[in-house]
Design goal:
Blueprint: E1 3-8, H1 19-28, E2 31-36, H2 41-53, E3 57-61, H3 73-82, E4 88-97, H4 105-122, E5 126-131, H5 136-144, E6 151-153, H6 160-168, E7 172-175, H7 186-191, E8 200-202, H8 226-237, H9 241-255
Helix pairs in contact: 2-3
């Protein structure tokens, strides 16, 4: 089967010693495409550098809400230039995080709105981060997104009502290894059973959120482990894993405007 890790951070320093081996392990596990996500100008540049070296890797550029206080005009101008690279297929990770508040709310909202606007101008799909925004994330999206603008709510951990609102905006839902944890992932495990098949994406968010079956192999998550996420979703939905993999592969390739036949 062909699997697409729709969100990981292979630009993280934890892979500096074995990045090529990690990508090779992913390919051997059936993970044929990988989206490497930028969260700052520096990590966005690094994502592009990696994607330019490995044909099965792609990059996104963006500013994470944690770093929104640094989201000035020059930074956004530089990201816009970086987005011209043929290896860039998405904008993000951007959004709101009112849990840790590493950046003030005003900075987060301004940075988020401007990135949604730029992605719309460049016709790039968005990779979203949302945590504890109490409806503000949806409010800004519902008024700020262009008609037909695409995106995915990465590492979804919200309620059923929130999921329905995001689906109503035409967004995809990114499912991580949290779904393999019966306690922490209880709510998510229930929701993936009713999530429309054509909106499901699987991701690792590596090096974070290692799926339960893979923790005995490595505490550090990596793209190869996204297979465990897919298998868990298939079991919860009582569907054939290969059939689900084909649908999710097509979902992801369609979102990022990639040829699904080029595995």
């Amino acid at each position: 089967m062909n699997i697409f890790d729709s969100h990981c951070h292979l630009n993280d320093a934890s892979y500096d010693g074995d990045r090529e081996a990690v990508i090779d392990r992913a390919a051997r596990a059936g993970v044929k495409k990988i989206m490497i996500v930028g969260i700052t100008e520096k990590t966005s540049r690094h994502a592009i550098d990696i994607a330019s070296s490995f044909e099965n890797c792609f990059a996104s550029v963006g500013i994470h809400p944690h770093d929104a206080r640094h989201c000035g005009k020059d930074v956004l101008k530089n990201l816009r230039r970086l987005a011209a690279s043929p290896h860039v297929k998405a904008w993000g990770e951007c959004g709101l995080d009112f849990n840790r508040m590493f950046s003030p709310r005003e900075n987060q909202e301004d940075c988020f709105v401007r990135q949604v606007e730029i992605a719309g101008e460049l016709d790039l799909p968005l990779i979203f981060h949302e945590r504890d925004s109490n409806g503000r994330f949806y409010e800004l999206l519902s008024t700020g997104m262009k008609k037909g603008q695409k995106g995915v709510v990465h590492c979804f951990s919200g309620t059923g009502a929130e999921m329905e609102k995001y689906l109503g905006l035409g967004l995809h839902i990114g499912v991580t290894g949290i779904v393999t944890n019966k306690n922490r992932g209880a709510a998510l495990r229930s929701l993936v059973k009713i999530l429309p098949e054509d909106r499901i994406l699987v991701e690792t968010d590596a090096p974070y959120l290692t799926p339960e079956p893979d923790k005995r192999i490595s505490r550090r998550n990596e793209p190869a482990f996204v297979r465990s996420v897919l298998m868990e979703i298939a079991e919860l939905r009582q569907t054939d894993p290969e059939q689900l993999a084909a649908v999710v592969w097509n979902n992801t390739c369609r979102l990022f405007a990639l040829n699904p036949d080029a595995a």
